Amino acid sequence: MTSTTMTSTTMTSTTATGTIPALPPVVERIYEDVLRRNAGEREFHQAVHEVLESLAVVLNRHREYTDLKTVERICEPERQIIFRVPWQDDRGEVHINRGFRVEFNSALGPYKGGLRFHPSVNLGIVKFLGFEQVFKNALTGMPIGGGKGGSDFDPKGRSDTEIMRFCQSFMTELYRHLGEYTDVPAGDIGVGAREIGYLFGQYKRITNRYESGVITGKGLGWGGALVRTEATGYGAAFFAAAMMAAAGESFDGRRAVVSGSGNVAVYGIEKIHQLGGTVVACSDSSGYVVDEKGIDLEVLKHVKEVQRARIDVYAERVPSASFVPGGSIWDVPCDVAVPSATQNEIDRDAAATLVRNGCRYVVEGANMPSTPEAVGLFREAGTRFAPGKAANAGGVATSALEMQQNASRDRWTFEHTEDRLEEIMRDIHTRCFETADEYGSPGDLVLGANVAGFLEVAEAVHALGLV
Ligand code: GLU
Known about the structure:
This protein is an alpha/beta fold and 467 residues long. It has helices at 25-37, 42-61, 63-67, 70-75, 123-140, 160-174, 193-207, 231-246, 263-274, 297-306, 312-317, 348-356, 372-381, 388-391, 394-408, 414-438, 445-463, and strands at residues 3-6, 11-15, 18-21, 79-88, 94-105, 111-117, 146-151, 183-186, 255-258, 278-284, 287-291, 321-325, 336-338, 361-363, 384-386.
């Protein structure tokens, strides 16, 4: 639960992840309302709180947003779908999971956002992700609204046929809500090319339509786009490079730590290496590996993508690497930290360690991996910080490029698509940077991303009338 208290000097709020400054009066009532109507959804509260903190300065300048309740409208999803997903495992045992799709905002285009399959998934997590997606998608400058979905299904240890049966059951309910002009899912944690294949196959079977634009992250042989697999990680590295360039620096000779070892992490590491940096550590939920020579990507890809094994197997195969079971990867000193695992993986203590060890850039590859206290600490310490909704927008931006190719029945080359991605990431950085300046907080990319994303959505919301 969140509560607001007045101490002798400042107002503070106590949230699930610690104590943060209370919101300015102009947005406080909106937040109280969100808390009341979405009880217990702490990640959603956290995501809304962070955006509202940034929007106070906009509402003070533009009265109409308060009068027309623009922020309230954006905080309320247009539609929330919850459904039962029954399926049978290989031994014949019946399982019941819960499926979600939160269609958050469609002012800029069809709902767009991934599906997450992970046991932690609940409505609050899907709503936080959907809410973030609205702003992220707006920042890409592409015509896509925001949504998110998933299930509390745990794919870990499941056979290929079990994954297929689950995906088919999930889509048997979800298909009626989808469409290339309505809602276009993609992957997220636990959902990659294999799952997208099974999901698309079932959609095609039920609807009898080869509607390529209904889902993104497809295989290259059946409507997928080059660079989509690499896009989120590459995009985060491009964003980091743009931040460094703005400060007159580059990746050259820099040490980086990238948490996670999924899609975002693997391709983030690949691009950082191409840009001249060295990634010395990565992780999974069992622990982390340190490799002072720089992570060997061939081995990492084989362990994670082919063997689907735990990260300690990397250390078994690479003599220069060591495996640390459990523990915090943020203890490893670095110049650039790229949290690419999951939400709230950097708490106040981890942030303090990073700052103490001289980390100068934190670039979020995952969605909301830093707690509000961690972000506050980075701000105080002058650590340059890029929020996920800006830094990891490369994935969804490339999904929009995939939709573009599907719509025109065209196929672009790797180089052309990567150039587009790099340009989009540079533009997002410029937009966040300039907006932060314009709204009186130079260098604050959190404020820049939230305000720039909001303004884009708000304009479309108004133009479309009260719908
Ligand atoms: N799940 C990714 C994200 O968080 C990608 C979504 C998409 O491609 O639609 O942005």
